[in-house]
Write a structure and sequence with these properties.
The chain has two domains: 2-155, 2-Layer Sandwich (VC0802-like), CATH 3.30.2130.30; 167-359, HUPs (Rossmann fold), CATH 3.40.50. It is 41% helix and 19% strand. The chain contains 13 helices and 15 strands. A five-stranded antiparallel beta sheet has the order 2-3-1-4-10. A five-stranded mixed beta sheet has the order 5-9-8-6-7. Strands 13-12-11-14-15 form a five-stranded parallel beta sheet, sandwiched between helices. The chain binds adenosine-5'-triphosphate (ATP).
Length: 363
């Protein structure tokens, strides 16, 4: 049996049942996709999953899960015998017993259980008790009158179950940042549709891989929509060439992407667009440029990385596995990038360009 703990969900009063059910359903769906048999049961602040131990790490990746422990289920009285058998041959420097009694009708309190089982272990094995920094933690949870005994607690991704917060369209570029932005939205319970603008570079391969990796955090495989960026950008580039303002290409490129993303979001019933922008990280991600890009699109844009440093983003990318996909293919410079790019777009100049774009029906 695998014990699944979820923190934040339990706090959301009134929504708790709905959230628990969603999380249990999501766990079952992910396990099924991975070809692992697994049946869930919701029980007083825990989800119990009847599945083989190999399911543990898969379940830990499900948004909403705080921690996971593969456990052995038994009557309370059977614990000493079980520990005797299981822990024979181990010789930790120190140990402690940590009990949580989820079933408050159980006759012994958590402290009584800690003391009783702790004393047994000392007597049987002669190990030292260390409540601060033990090498071995014997975990016991009392659920529905039964004792669940375990020795590890694997950290989950946390957050909220996917599907509890509606849908978003995430712009995934083939860089490090945008997959992390999409992950953070999944983690907060949003369903994600991935959108990539293909520029004929290796980036598409990275994105395909990234979407596969991100799908591990989602009950359904993430849908990837690929658009031909040449076709979308061509008319914008023509206007800029006519105005002799090629240095505005990167800003208009983003506007063209966001505009198309908004159309797709509307078609898909998604409530927002997600990008991997982080303030000032590259010369083009300035507040002025982000301002111009944002006011050009009539749809909510979410930038979950806006206040993150590069190191923080890289560390999440490594943890969730998308960094490796980025490293797999050599980086390609954007084929549309002019020699000089605008870093602090002037709004008056933009209005002038916007008027021309409007004449062409592009904005
Ligand atoms: N070809 C693309 N397809 C889809 N989205 C894109 C593409 N290029 C950029 N984006 C979106 O625009 C955001 C900003 O892109 P930009 O190239 O300025 O930044 P970046 O620091 O390289 O970001 P990333 O590391 O995510 O590529 C990206 O995070 C992504 O959400």
């Amino acid at each position: 049996m695998i014990i699944v703990r979820y923190g934040e969900i339990a706090i959301k009063r009134g929504k708790r049942k709905e959230f628990e059910k969603k999380l249990a359903d999501n766990i079952e769906k992910i396990l099924k996709r991975k070809g692992i048999p697994g049946k869930t049961k919701i029980s007083r602040g825990r989800i119990l999953v009847d599945a083989p131990n190999e399911a543990t790490n898969i379940i830990a990746k499900t948004p909403g899960v705080v921690s996971v422990s593969p456990a052995e289920v038994m009557e309370y009285e059977e614990i000493p015998n079980y520990l005797k058998k299981t822990l024979m041959g181990f010789n930790p420097k120190s140990f402690k017993v940590e009990t949580q009694r989820l079933d408050k009708t159980f006759l012994k309190t958590s402290l009584e259980i800690n003391k009783e089982i702790g004393e047994f272990v000392v007597k049987e094995f002669g190990w030292k008790v260390d409540l601060e920094n033990p090498e071995l933690v014997i975990g016991i949870e009392i659920i529905d009158g039964k004792a669940y005994v375990f020795f590890e607690k694997i950290k989950g991704v946390g957050g909220l179950p996917v599907g509890t917060q509606g849908k978003v369209v995430a712009l995934i570029s083939g860089g490090i940042d945008s997959p992390v932005a999409a992950f953070l939205m999944l983690k907060r319970g949003a369903e994600v549709i991935a959108l990539h603008f293909d520029q004929g570079t290796n980036a598409k391969k990275v994105v395909e891989k990234v979407v596969e990796i991100l799908s591990d955090y989602s009950p359904e495989p993430i849908e990837l929509i690929v658009e031909n960026h040449f076709e979308i950008l061509k008319p914008y580039v023509s206007v800029l060439a006519k105005l002799q303002k090629r240095e505005w290409t990167c800003i208009l490129c983003k506007i063209a992407m966001l505009k198309r993303a908004a159309e797709i979001a509307k078609e898909e019933g998604a409530l927002g667009i997600v990008t991997g922008d982080s303030l000032g990280q590259v010369a083009s991600q300035t507040l002025s440029n982000l301002f111009i890009e944002t006011i050009s699109v009539d749809y909510p844009i979410y930038r979950p990385l806006i206040g993150f440093d590069k190191e923080e983003i890289v560390s999440i990318a490594k943890r969730i596995g998308t960094y490796d996909a980025f490293l797999e293919y050599p980086y390609c410079e954007c084929p549309f990038r002019p020699n000089r790019v605008i870093t602090q777009g002037k709004i008056t100049e933009f209005y002038f360009i916007r008027d021309e774009l409007r004449k062409e029906g592009l904005l």
